[in-house]
Predict the 3D structure of the following.
Amino acid sequence: MRILTKLYHRIRRGTKKRIQYLFYLLRLKKEILVRKDVHLALDSSSNDEVIISLTSFPARFGVLGGCLKSLLYQRVRPHRLIVWLAEEEVEGLDLSKQIPEFEFFVRSGIEFALIEENLRSYNKLLPALKRYPRGIIVTCDDDILYPPWFLEKMVRAYNPEEICFYRAWEMETDPRGRMAPYHTWNDASSKTPSSRLFFTGVGGVLYPPGSLAEEVFNVSRIRELCPSGDDIWFNAMALLKGTKKRLLLSNSYSFPIIKESLSQRSALRERNVAQGFNDVMLRAVFDCYNLYQFL
């Protein structure tokens, strides 16, 4: 009976996500028809410059456009929207032919910036932190459809003392005080700031200036301890700095994933979660920096 109950809820969640995905597509198409002329609010004179930062790579260029349009048609627009691309991955490519509607995105104010050092998923945040140390940086994933209220709620809730986000887990420890397996954690379900919240980049994360420890730029440590766990690293650096973390809604919220990228995400999840690699990286980082004391 318990197996049937679990199966029912799994099917129900899957159906809900498909309906949500179709709704977002229809909403986005409506916004595009109504607002054909769109441009970012590039007012760099503001003291509180809001920068949306994400990264992409050739295998994702086919879905990148959907994500970028969802970010262009926000109720509140950022001052900058930057897509970071690793030089080694796009060398010799004509981006105007590789990225659908590339010229439209450039005219709309989106910046496509090349970076020499390729840290893959870390590219969504580290280059922006270096170039705009005083900026309010919001990271996104390149295969997600973000609703029109995504940035507005973040900006309205902004607190320079807190990292805020839409999706998170509650970190759990075992009876010995060590990190419990990642797959046993529960969804976050409170808007109360907590050091035990573990935000995930897929839902979007807002980082105030100076909210992460300077150690965040230690590339040798990243490669040694956490090569494919950017979420783990950024959460660890927030703990190390002592920055509060807060869920924006009363429950952890997941935005629709553009379906063409689901197989890539499944492969990463299989390696990091199902095979336990997340647990290896978590314990390595927490042991290295003695982070248990901050939970």
Q: What stands out?
A: Residues 2-34 form the longest helix (33 residues).
